[in-house]
Amino acid sequence: MDEMSAYSGRSVHEEILQKLLSSVHAHEAHLAAMSDPDVADSVSANVIEARRKALERGETEILSLENATLGSGLERGDVALSSNVCCKVSLNVPEKVLPQHIVSYFSENAGTGVRDLGDDALKIISALSFLCDEAAELLVVSETLISGVLMFGPRPAAKIPDGDEISEKRADELVLCVGSSMSFFQELHNFTLRCMRVARNIVCQIAGCLTDDLFRNVKVIPVAEALCTVLRILITVDNAVSNNSDLIDAWRMYKMVVREKSTKNSVENVVDEEFGNFEKMIVELDSNVLSAQSFETCIEQDFNPSSTSVSKVEVRNNPNLHAELKSLLVLLFDRYNNMVGSASETNERQQLIGVYGLYALYRRILPANEVPDGKLYKKLFTLFPDRCPIINICGDSAFFPANFLMQYAPFEVKGLDQSSVSKKAVDFVKRLDASFEKQAAQFKGQCLAWIAQCDSDLSASSRQYNTQGGIETSATERIETRASLILKGVVIAYRASALVKTLLALHKALGLPLTTRLVTPVRSLVEVLKAIEAELSNRRRAAVATMHPITLRILAAAISRKFKGLRSIIDSSNTSSKGSKNRKIRKLAACLSALDGSLKGTSTYGPARRFASQLAACACSAPDTGVTLQEAQSAEALLRRLSLLADLDAHIKTACSCTWLYFNRELLSVFFSDVYSNEKKADVAGLQLLINGACDCEPMLRCAPQLNPDGEDEKEGDAYVDEYRSFVLEDVLKAEIVDKLCREVENDLRLHVHTKNLDHMASTNPVVDKRLKIKPFILMQPLVVFDVVLDIHKRVKQYLEASFYNLTTVALHDWLTYSEMKNLAKEKFGIELADNFLPMGSLDQGLDILQIMRNIHVFVARFNYDLNQQVFIERRPDRGAKYLNTISIDSISCSIRQHGLGILNTTVNYTYQYLSKKFHIFSQFLFDDYIRSHLSKEKRWYKKHHKDDTVDNKYPFDRAMMFVKDIKKLGVSDNKTFLDRFRILISEIGNALGYVRMVRSAGMKYCSEAVQFLPDLDEIGEFAPLAGTGIAGGGGGG
After folding, report:
1. List of residues 6+ apart from 176 with CB closer than 8 A
2. CB burial class (10 A; 0-12, 13-18, 19+) of residue 28?
3. What is the mean pLDDT of residues 795-799?
4. 33-45, pLDDT tens digit by residue?
5. 398 φ/ψ angles, rounded to the nearest 5 degrees
6. Section 1007-1017 average pLDDT
7. Which residues neighbour 834 within 8 Å (Cβ) at sequence distance 6 or greater?
8. Which of 212, 457, 236, 186 is nearest to 350 (CA)?
9. Measuring CA to CA, which residue among 697, 689, 695 is closest to residue 659?
10. For an engineered disulfide with 184, which of 107, 319, 705, 847 has Cβ 3.0 to 4.6 Å away?
11. What is the 3-state secondary structure (H, E, C) of 572-624?
């Protein structure tokens, strides 16, 4: 009583809390300091050893840190907290204590003999809490096994196309997958058998409690919840198996292979004992887990205690047990159903699955001659299904409560139309679609307000003051307010997750399309979930980690104070006298001792400790114990709050998990397309949150049983992760964000530049400037997809650099356009492109001298030579070209500077070889008989008439025209006569000679420019004074 009076003393209580808060601030400073690697390295081994010894002694982490980290933590208390360090701060319970040690702790230390008097009550609490703890452990183990069932299918390496249901390749792959997964199926079968034994044990324990004079009036709600948990696990396993078509087909084909092998052994009279045992195992798997009948097998098993059991309580023919199960069933259903849709809903929808499983179990235990309660059946069939006709149980599998009742517990009730389940579900979907957008907006508003409040109340600065909303408050009130704020975020996440999963499950189960107007609300809910997780797990992790143990202690003290009246009654009673009343008081004293033992002595409350305290509280809250109904309900609410906070990490993970996105992966492309298509302003803040939601499935992807991570290929175990990562990066992010962004940035730059250069282009409207849409994507932080970092700014930069380089090389005349686009990209979007080191079509460099030399025949035919300016000008440009190419002495000089003077001799020699061929053609033309005869004729006429007055030593134009006509009569090819071709030949010879002349002039210009770098021989400087003294380390020149 002296210890409990300390809880009621206001001043002492406040003093304790103030000391705890001071240690909290020291812990926060330590966490902040540990984010600095220099400080982290300075933590000595003595500090680590002190922590380890403190934990072994059962001391809390915070109190041990108060003395261990003052040296390193308070000195660097202003260091910013790193998210990586925060993620390492875990709230998981470091203890693993057996329930009997917990409930007997207080009595063994009291030394009053209470343990001997109330030994029966302590044994009951120990046994029941152990079963509850085992059920909780089964729930944790089931997550991995159910993930393995969901991920069973053809391996990614097999490359089976989607929709392929009949190919031989798929059949072979599925059979191989079953063979690789056989050990997993055995483990799953053993797990379901364990669940069945636990369920049977819980039922027997509930029946045994009815024989005790105290517990017969106690509603063992934690035990009933544990039974519902076990049944829910089996229902989930069956649902996952039945909804995996690959697993069903693979198991069917695998049985055919085993049957063929068995038939072959029978025909050949082969006796194989190992194969016989294997066949027995196949039969066991087929009759239980792989036929989706584990739940039905569980509820049809014999629940009566075995012959070796000490207890001989009847189960099947036990009216008291039937009434108790029905009472617990109604109690749990009413509690969960009232919570669904309320402002404090958490995981009640999932727990209702177990309640329906409990009803099916109750109906199987009920004797055949006893008529079930029609009102209860109608209540289960209509009350909750009308509010929520479907529950997402795992993956993309759905649980229909009404269909479940018709399958496992059918019952005809007058006035109940059981054929309208589908119609009611469709009507519910229509109502949900109509209100979904509004509900999603409400959740988003609540999330934003909650994050703002967290940043205000959970920041390091706000925790240093004794005020809350401008009003001075006590330490207890501040801690409770912040704990309520943390739980509020978890509740918002649970409600938002339930809403979006219900919507998607209904549309998928009923085959209804998801309208486009619902895409944005669904995406916003994903962002809400991941924002809450980031706030509690990263940004405000230090506040959560430090407030967590203190809040649990305050809740434990508050629970203990609820039984202050019962403690006074027990202390005032004479427990040494005999009688049923005193016997009951002695058991209540033992239960109260167990409650105190489980609530005291720790700041971390594991499952076993919580279940023991809940059972002890249920026993102490029973009727006729002196505890009022209000106190009992208040204690129950505090225990529920304690459970939520003790398992805070698990609840955050469960509530904010977006694993269901993997089974609706087609939505990811729509989500990111919706983000990018926002014309007003880019919503880039939610991109990383969406990616985090898409990556939540990574642990599940690694649970595929058909993959062998220990095989020859070490990466085989990550096959599904690699495939999904590639899908998110290439098919989603690259296709919907990066590629579109790259094209839009380039088009925007191009249109902006063309608007300036081209008169017919209309000016861009500044009101609809796309900078607000594009620039946030470019300036955002890199995205993390699994273990890959995607920098959108870098991707856009690489795209523009490659595009500008390639387009400039194709059209050198557009160099100025791309130069302007490059400068505009830096000014408009902050993208600083690297120099591509191209000549950018400079006037000093045209065609390369080597290119001209190799194509000299093309060059002399397409260019005209200006003898005066020594410039070659292109005769006729290519089709579509905007400019004429020119070659000057400067351009050839640039080529010589690039290739060296050795190219001159090669160029001249190559050109002269070309000229020799042309002169050969020239001579052949002149020596042709037809040409020679006409020329000789004209020669003779001119010699005869050149002194005439009409000729005057000038060849007349008329004779020239007659000569051209005569030559034309010799033949025309491509509208060109022999004389036209001869004229072209002479032009090409002249161009070649002009090119040699230009090369000579360019070489001289290059030499004249290069000679300026030679030293003046008349003024050679002396370097000796600049060399220094020659001593090591001595510098010259002073």
Report:
1. 706
2. buried
3. 94
4. 443 333 333 333 3
5. -120, 150
6. 81
7. 801
8. 236
9. 697
10. 705
11. HCCCCCCCHHHHHHHHHHHHHHHHHHHHCCCCCCCHHHHHHHHHHHHHHCCCC
